[in-house]
Structure formats: C-alpha cells, structure tokens
Amino acid sequence: MLLRMSIKMGGLQSVSFNSLRAYRRNIIISCLKGLEYRFGIIYILIEAIIPVTAMFFLWQAIYQDGREIGDYGFNQMITYYAFARIINYLIWFPMDWKMNDLVNQGKLSPLLSKPVDIQGLYFSEMIGDRIINFVLGCIPLFIMAFLFRDYLSFNTDPIQIFFGLVSICLACVLSFLLAWLVGCYVFWVSNIFSVLFVKELIVMIFAGVFFPIDILPWGLANFISLTPFPYLAFFPIKIITVSIETSSLMEGLLLQIIWIVILFVLGRIAWKMGLKKYVEAGG
How wide is the angle at C-alpha 195 spanned by C-alphas 266 and 233, nearest 5°? Predict the structure, then answer.
C-alpha cells in the first residue's frame, strides 16, 4: 500500500514550493559533482578535440580533389562536424542508462517515497550537468576555433545566433525526454543495455552528429525529417553555421516544441504504465 501511494507521488503531481527547492538544490549538487570529478573534465576536453582533429584529416583526404559533397565544401564540413561534437556532449544526458540502473539495482523504490516528481528531479540534475558542460565546453570551443580558424565559417547574424542557442536548449529538453521514454522500456525487459547501445547509434546517425543529414538521398533525408532526431543536432547546427530563412527557422523551432510535448506525454504514459507493472512484479 505504501509503495502504491509512493507511485502516485512519483507520477503526475503538483509542483510545490518544497519540491522547487529540491530541484534547485539538485541543480547545484549536479554542478558541484561535475566540478568534483576532474577526470570527467579532462575527458570532456579530449572527447571534444581529438575526434574533430581526426575527422579533419579524414575529410581533408576525401576533399583533396576539390569536389563538394552536397552543398558542403571542405570548410563547411569541418565547421559542421566541429559544432556537431560540441552540441552532442552539450545535450547528451544518459537518462535511459540511469533508468536501467534505477530499476535493476533496486534504487527506484526509495525514490518513490520522496515528495518530488522523479522526472523533475532528474531533469534538474540534467540542468546542472549541462551548465557545467556548457562552461567547460567553451574551453575546447575556443581551442578548436583557434586551431582550425582558417577552415571554420560561422553565422554572424546575432539574431540567428540567439535562436541557435534557443534551439540548443530545446534540443537538451528533447534529448532528455527521448532518453526518458526509451528508459521506461526497462519496466518490461530486465536489462536494456543492448537496446541502449543500438539507440545511441541510431540517434547519432539520424540526428546528424556524424555527418549532415541533407547529404543523404532525398527520400531518406525527407523520412528522417519527419522524426524528432534532426532537431537534436542537425537543426541547431544549421542555424549557427549558415543563414536560414526566418520562416524555416520559426517552423523548425515550432517542430522542436511539438516534439517536446509529444515525447513528454508519451514518456508520462510509459512511466505510469511501467510503475504499475513494477509494483505488480513486487518491485
């Protein structure tokens, strides 16, 4: 009975002043954790710089005859990939992996007894984690900008840069909700490690982290555009690196918001159904 009552508290519930204080405290704790683990800081720097350097030489070999791939010359491709790496680690938060650990390591039941919304609790943790990553991300960003200054091209329109930052923030929310929805699958399967590995690969390809989506055949690129994946990386990168028409910009931001609403609703439904199964199974 107590666990069933806890489920109601861990599901849809009103946001109280105390819970808001808990979320704010969780953001601060998450920031402190990010600064505490120095190896993680070094990893962020290495993870941002080394792949871009390797891909620089790879694309240099591909473009050595001076051709273009789609609408991308060598400089445009290097710029795109550099920002893809930055955005990838700015928006990525392993909520699905955390969900797998919560259920399989018996950490979920104690959380259900707390008077806070669990999704909100982890969302606040994600905010703190992203703040640290954003601050630290400025370091490799400036380093890469200096090293590859002769090959990078940026959008200098301050309005589009602003909306590019807005799009990145929306991409963070979208990425979190997608991971939350996938993570809820753990309630029906004992372990979802293999599912998560496949999901990461699919998301990175369809989000345009490895290469721009618009260099793919038209039919495939058009299909991917109907999914939420391009709005995780491809769309924000395009805003920052090239000039986009205002109508296309507003349409893209609106689609990001629509996908956020859809994934939020689906995630809440999956969470509620999963918790019911979790209790029935004796969790």
Answer: 65
pLDDT of residue 18: 57
Q: Which helix (DSSP H) or strand (DSSP E) does residue 273 occupy? A: helix 246-280
Cβ neighbours around 73 below 10 Å, total? 15
pLDDT of residue 13: 43
Q: How many CB atoms lie within 10 A of CB 39?
A: 7
Q: For position 140, what pLDDT does the model report?
A: 66
3-state secondary structure of 189: coil
What residue has token string 């301050």? Answer: 158
Contact 156, 247 (CB under 8 A): no
What does the domain layout of the chain look like in residue ranges? 2-280
Three-class SS state of 69: strand
Residue 213 to residue 218: CA distance in whole angstroms: 10
pLDDT at 43: 63
Both tokens of residue 70?
Answer: 């789609």
Looking at residue 5, its pLDDT comes to 40
249 alpha carbon, distance to own chain's centre: 20
Q: 207: closest CA among 181, 235, 233? A: 233
Structure tokens given for 236: 């924000």
pLDDT tens for residues 57-96?
888 888 887 777 877 888 888 888 888 887 877 888 889 9
